[in-house]
């Protein structure tokens, strides 16, 4: 099962930092998400040089990740075609649970 089967996400960016939120579709899936979607697993997606901090919001069945240095210089300095915060959530939603 992939994370996107049981959750959706929202993202944003500011400078070189991305903000990634994961929200369970159904409360009964929250324990599985909380146990499996860790800061270490998210950091592994983006490779070396990133710092990931996870904040859980159990009453909302959601979590938020602050991913520092994910955007390689930030939106205004990047030559990448939309490798910004809005696209990064899809990499996280591909995690296998």
TrEMBL record:
Pfam families from the entry? AtuA_ferredoxin
**Xref: InterPro entries:** AtuA-like_ferredoxin_dom
In terms of superkingdom, the source organism counts as Bacteria
Where is the AtuA-like ferredoxin-fold domain positioned along the sequence?
Answer: 1-95
Q: What is this protein called?
A: AtuA-like ferredoxin-fold domain-containing protein
Organism annotation: Arenibacterium halophilum
